[in-house]
Amino acid sequence: MSGKYEIFLGKDEEFYFHLKAANGEIILASEGYTQKHNAEKAVESVRLNSQIADNFLDKIAQDDRFYFVLRADNHEVIGTSQMYQSKQSSDKGKESVKTNGLVSDLYDLT
Question: Residue 9 maps to which CATH number?
Answer without folding.
Answer: 2.30.29.80
